[in-house]
Amino acid sequence: MEWMMLLLAALFEVTWAVTMKMSEGFTRLIPGIITAVGYIASALFLSLALKKLPLGTAYAMWTGFGIVGTSVLGMVLFHENLSVPQIICVVLIVGGIVGLKVLS
Q1: Which of 10, 48, 73, 103 fits as disulfide partner to 65, beta carbons 3.0 to 4.6 Å?
Q2: What is the mean pLDDT of residues 68-81?
Q3: 30 pLDDT exceeds 80?
């Protein structure tokens, strides 16, 4: 169950990060509200996951999921480009996430 909480925390983290960009500096109401709700939900689910998971593992995976999710959505939604070195680094992060899950 704690892994599900961590996954939900990561999904809400990606949600608030993407909607923060969409809020255009909190000048757009709906994306701004979604950002705030997503931020709170992300912290709530992370805190629930931390009841059972080690802090270092959970936090690394939470931020790793966030990096991967926001990188992909940045390319899809905002037409942002990633260089080859950046793509390699994101792939390494995915490898780290898999390694943390397999070894924990």
Answers
A1: 10
A2: 95
A3: yes
Please give the residue range of the domain that contains residue 81: 2-103
Please give the C-alpha separations between residue 42 and each of 7, 23, 83, 102, in angstroms, as whole numbers.
Answer: 10, 18, 29, 23
Q: Tell which phi-psi region holds residue 24, choosing left (phi > 0), alpha (psi between -120 and 50) or beta.
A: left
Q: How many domains does the chain have?
A: 1
Classify burial at 45, counting beta carbons within 10 Å of its beta carbon; exposed 0-12, middle 13-18, buried 19 or more: buried
HEC sequence for the chain: CHHHHHHHHHHHHHHHHHHHHHCCCCCCHHHHHHHHHHHHHHHHHHHHHCCCCCHHHHHHHHHHHHHHHHHHHHHHHHCCCCCHHHHHHHHHHHHHHHHHHHHC
How confident is the model at residue 102, as a pLDDT?
84
Cα within 13 Å of Cα(76), Cβ side: 7
What pTM was computed for the model?
Answer: 0.88
